[in-house]
Every structure is written in C-alpha cells, then in structure tokens.
Here is the input.
Amino acid sequence: MTKEAHIEVVGLSMAYGDFVVQRDLTFKVNKGDIFVIMGGNGCGKTTLMRALTGLQRPASGTVRYDGEDFWSVAPEDQDRMKRRLGIMFQGGALWSSLTLAENVALPLTEYADLPSPRVAEIVSFKLALVGLAGFGDFYPSELSGGMKKRAGLARAMALDPDILIIDEPSSGLDPLTARRLDDLILELRDSLGATIVVISHDLASILAIGSDSIYLDADTHTMIATGNPQHALQAGDPKVRHFLNRGTA
Here is the structure.
C-alpha cells in the first residue's frame, strides 16, 4: 500500500550569510511515521527544524504540508498551518513563572475560543496522557528533567496537532528515563495517529522509535537518505553505519 506524504521537503538549502549549513535536502515524511532527523553535533539538525516550523526562512527550496508550500503562502495561511504543528523544544521551554497546567493551557487560550472549564478539562486530559495527572499545580522548578520533557510534550499536543516535531527528546536524561519517553512517543503515535518528526543524535532512541530517517552530514553539508534506522545499522551507507554503531562497537 502506497503511503501518503504528510510533509515534503524539496531542494531545501539553509544558510547563515555565506555559510551553507545544509544544501539540497529532499525527503518525504509519510503520515503515521516516526521520522528521525539524525546526525552529529553542528550538522544542522536544529536549523532544519526551524525551517520546518516556520522559525527560519530557508535560503532556497520548499516545505510542503499536504501539498501546500509553507514558505510561499500568505502570513495568515502560515499561521493556520503552524497550528497543525505541535513542537516540543529541547529543554521543554516551559515558562518558569507558570504552573504546569498554565503552561499547557497557553496554546488553548491563545488560539482556541473555549470557556475556562473546557480549557481546564483539556489540560487535565493532556497531562494524564503523558503520565502527569495531578501535577497541574506544580511549577517547572519542582519537576525532574523527564517530567519537564513530558510536560513540554503535553503542551505540544494541546491543540490536537496532526504533526508533532520533537527536538532531542532524550537530551540530558538518564537511560531509563529516556527509554520511558521513547515508549511514550510510540504510544502517542499509535493512540493519536499523529505523524512525528524527531530530531536526535541519541542512538538508543533513534533505533528504538524511528521508522524512517535521514542523516545530515556535517562534512558534505547535505543529507544521506537512510530509511529505517534498524536497516541502516546493518546495510546502510558506511558513514551512517559508523554513526549508528558508535554505541555498539
């Protein structure tokens, strides 16, 4: 059965002035996939995430969501498309002065015209989805690193996005907490039917959750299509195999 592309990136190049970070990126993210953007430090993973989410205009190329070119539409249409995306930033990016419930409620109060009781109901549901039921009145400073990541995930899901983009989910976590977060990402994909894009250099996480992937090469400043990371580990491009075997060699 032919899979349906949710995101199409065609000929994308990203630069800071004259310095080209990555060039000629072309790939598809199919609906229901957990698509991993991987590579070492400084290869351009976060810059690509910014281009995908409307935070940084690429030097050239297109990013299409269900066939609609994000960077060529009017600003109001870009805002409409952004609301289809849920983004979990690397550090959680929670407001320290707000409780967990208030953090998760922010997208709802900003973009959804809902009465307060309905917002509270949705917030409770999203926190329960990520295993944080009963923690709504806690402040970020009172949470562990893993709990902050899950709280960031709850906020990313507040508006029921059909695409989740998650930046370095296991960064700064111990292996057990990281594995639990990987399991949660898999559960959310299966239960919500969302398409998930994960930016990561963590080998255990890449191999545990990825169904498709690309590798951003810092030397050539372009991508290597790698497919399923488990398959790439055994029979992929030599540079990708070397990257994926670092934790097993």
